[in-house]
Amino acid sequence: MIQPFADVQLLLPELLLSIVAMVLLIVGALIKRDITRELSFVAALSLLGAALLVRSPEEGFVIFGGAFATDEFARFGRIAIFVTAGLALLLSNGFFRREKLLRPEYVVLVLLSSIGMGLMVSATDLIAVYLGVELQSLCVYIMATLNRDSKRSTEAGLKYFVLGALSSGFLLYGASLIYGFTGSTQFADIAASSIVTDSPVGLTFGLIFFVSALAFKVSAAPFHMWTPDVYEGSPTPVTAFMAAAPKLAGMFLFGRFLVQAFPGLIDQWQPVIWIISAASMIVGALSALVQTNIKRLMAYSSIGHMGYALIGLAAGTETGISSMASYMLIYMLMTLGTFACILMMRRPEGMAENITDLSGLSQTRPALAIAFSILFISLAGIPPFIGFFAKFFVFTAAVDAGLIILAVVAVVTSVIATFYYLSVIRTIWFAEPTPEFVTDQDASVRMTASGSAILVTLGTIFLVGPIAGAAAVAARALFPAVVGG
């Protein structure tokens, strides 16, 4: 039964962000002087407020006629997304001011994209999924082209838009096939239909098209083609944002869609996720070996990390979903910290993006060198840093689910990936120093870089337990529907 007042209450975070976005858009258009910096702080505070407003009833709740769920899984994802978006906003002020790209519309686009991602992780209906995905995607397409005077930025945005439109076509076609063969757009009804009847071929094709579209959104191989060029061409704060929040939202949507809509077809979708996961890890590890641009390196690193996160999804178990959620939260922390370090790679003539620009950083900027090294070691998954435990969780879930070969592929590609992470660290500590980076960075950038490095270092003691516990509670919310089915 639809309860409008209760429904509105449970989507209060997204409504708050919608109101703030519209107000900031009007204020930015009416006031002649540049107040974008102030608008950024207001938007960041509203994102923090939205994270604090996220709640879920004790037993979970399906709202707006079954379109959205407000269970612990959605709560976990929404809080992580809003906090990530807020941090990404704070990271962007100094960069956009120096590059003369500071515009009110960027702030509004981040808020609208966050609303779309909040809807993505809550959606339990194919139409709601499409609305959330497109709201998030359209905003990021525009953000990628903010530097209109840059050919790289324009090319990145155009490439992202064209390939994103193709993935949207896949998503819609897959959704139409699923609806055609099950008679419903809601996950619960789709699950009931797929369990009680033999799966028709058309339903399987619909599932594959839908999975392909979601794989594009998280830049998993072989749907990763856009990632390196878009990461390199977009303004660095935009790259930081798209490397963290949309990936987390896409992976959470991936998990809810497969577990809640197709629990009875796990034998059909598990091999597909297995292949995508293995391909992502292999492509990410091997392609990153030959990169000379730090942002392209991070792009291929991201592809590989999505492969590791998909291991938990391929397991198809509660432990697997829990490990995936833990992995994405830890990955978000490491990625934001790394891009904060990249934002500090600036010389008087502009941003430096080549890995060779880090040569001898330990002698010119030792604090930045230490932060870079800690974050890269954690991304490589070397103990005792928190990135090791992220991989340990998904590897354990794979072994428990009997995916031994996938676990072996993951271990081998982790060893290969360690080489390119350590090669960057070698450049930082043992190469001849290059001209020093400028030090006029925003406090938010310095604090994010140093804070992330500290959290990655101390996370073994203070963060691993709480993150794993929260992820386990979130994953548990998806599985009563399976048992009930």
UniProtKB/TrEMBL annotation:
Annotated TM spans: 12-31, 38-56, 76-96, 103-121, 158-181, 201-226, 238-259, 271-290, 327-345, 366-386, 392-422, 453-479
InterPro entries: NADH-Q_OxRdtase_suN/2 (IPR010096), ND/Mrp_TM (IPR001750)
Assigned keywords, A-Z: Cell membrane, Membrane, NAD, Oxidoreductase, Quinone, Translocase, Transmembrane, Transmembrane helix, Transport, Ubiquinone
Predominant localisation class: membrane
Annotated membrane topology: Multi-pass membrane protein
Record flagged with keyword Secreted: no
GO cellular-component term (any): endomembrane system
Subunit structure as annotated in this protein's UniProt entry: NDH-1 is composed of 14 different subunits. Subunits NuoA, H, J, K, L, M, N constitute the membrane sector of the complex.
Protein name as annotated: NADH-quinone oxidoreductase subunit N
Lineage start: Bacteria, Pseudomonadati, Pseudomonadota, Alphaproteobacteria, Parvularculales
